[in-house]
Amino acid sequence: LEHLSFYLVELCQTAYEALKFKASLLCASSIYLARCTLRISPAWTTLLQKHTDYEEMEL
Fold this sequence. Notes:
Elements: H1 2-14, H2 23-37, H3 46-52
Helix pairs in contact: 1-2
């Protein structure tokens, strides 16, 4: 999960379009996508929401 999340964040750094988003949103989205890809359920927990201040719909 950790390595996949880091990889996804690195991919965002190479995309010019991703620069308009906050780094915290990109990181949270990377964690969410990694959890979805690895079929970890639930993909977004209340604990993740609490620590990131992002709801699942914002990602």
